[in-house]
DNA sequence: GACTGTGAAGCCATTCACAGCT
DNA sequence: AGCTGTGAATGGCTTCACAGTC
């Protein structure tokens, strides 16, 4: 357990830095400065250094950072030095897209199962996963030692599904439904609201009209 | 053009308040207090009042807010008192899911077209849209007076597609690709990075191990 | 000379607390 | 009495600026 609280904005940027470093590795770069990282991802160089300073000293003064070394450090900090088992609940358009999204697996998230309540959908093949019944939730979570649940069901079922996931032992929830979920403080919860993002665009467009 | 800068966090919450108010309307509620809204969406009541105060005085002291009235005001503030024409570029898993997502249309975003570069996908039917060729981008944007572009292509094509959209006259971009896009300051840009969200969960899970 | 690591300053958002209405 | 609207206080993140190191 960390002694100091890390700003969420910092964690988000670390994730972005790590991807940029991966790109640099592919391009064969050996070292990189905070200024170059800053430039590559669109923040200030002081910001990059401050973010890294929360976790230690990774660079060499006068030189910069060793790309591959910093990359591995960041992956470790982000908890991506091992894989997480994940379950998706809801196999509609969004759930299916998430199940098929290569990016998750690339970054260490195993999609172990995808569930739905609709009999017409159960049994459908999505890549190498078959949509299973919601009834299987508890036993699948236990069987695969699943730590992360992804909620892609309609708003009115979101809280119910959340409780089933927590009951089964899931410790973190990524919620794609447009509903505020109530969970105990020990559960890690994040919301991704697709409409909200479009509405922020709309607000800014409306400002300049 | 507004004189004061509004925090993005405030805009995000206004969007959430507006959905909660819609829910209250469905339930037949007539008035609501800042405390009730706060409770419903998981923020403090002072926060709700501060957010609203950026835009005017909408309530009655001692009473609260009239639900339907506040709802309409928020929709107007968010620029959702009319519809926005939108184009999606990239008809892979994610792009297709977005095209079929009912939530966008519900909140005033017309998906006018979806494009891809892959001939094997062009012509596919998605709901009542047919996937069209990327070549059509410029003419479709002009023809439908499209203001918003949604990017759902692989990272290595994201910047190129962005430039085509801006060239064609699009004023706002919602970017789902994991790549930092360079645009001029007059363009409204938002990034939705699905992996980053999972990685923030991962970070928090790793903390408590 | 170049670049990191960091205390201090500055800035922005949230919370507090209360005056003002109904 | 109840609830809004808001100036003041607080807290937290970002930027500045420079000492320290290679």
Key traits:
Arc Repressor Mutant, subunit A; 10 strands; homodimer; 2 domains; 17% strand; two-stranded antiparallel ribbon; 6-stranded parallel beta sheet; 46% helix; Rossmann fold; DNA-binding; 9 helices; alpha/beta; 209 residues; globular
* Proportion of strand residues of chain A: 15-25%
Structural class of chain A: alpha/beta
Helical segment tally of chain A?
A: 9
The strand line-up of the biggest sheet of chain A is 7-4-3-8-9-10
Domain unit count of chain A: 2
Considering residues with a beta carbon less than 8 A from a beta carbon on another chain, report the largest interface and each chain's count. A-B, 59 and 60 residues
Mean pLDDT of chain A: 95
How would you describe this structure to a colleague?
2 copies of one chain form a homodimer. The first copy, chain A, is of the alpha/beta class. The first copy, chain A, has 2 domains: 8-77, Arc Repressor Mutant, subunit A (Orthogonal Bundle), CATH 1.10.10; 84-196, Rossmann fold (3-Layer(aba) Sandwich), CATH 3.40.50.720. Helix content of chain A is 46%, strand content 17%. Chain A contains 9 helices and 10 strands. Chain A has helices at residues 8-26, 34-41, 45-53, 67-77, 93-100, 102-106, 137-144, 155-168, 194-207, and strands spanning 31-32, 65-66, 84-89, 109-116, 125-126, 129-130, 132-133, 148-151, 172-175, 188-191. In chain A, the strands form 3 sheets. A 6-stranded parallel beta sheet of chain A has the order 7-4-3-8-9-10, with helices on both faces. In chain A, strands 1-2 form a two-stranded antiparallel sheet. In chain A, helix 1 runs antiparallel to helix 4. Chain A is globular and about 60 Å long. At the A-B interface, helix 1, helix 5, helix 6 and helix 9 of A face helix 1, helix 5, helix 6 and helix 9 of B. The first copy, chain A, binds a DNA duplex (22 and 22 nucleotides) through helix 3.
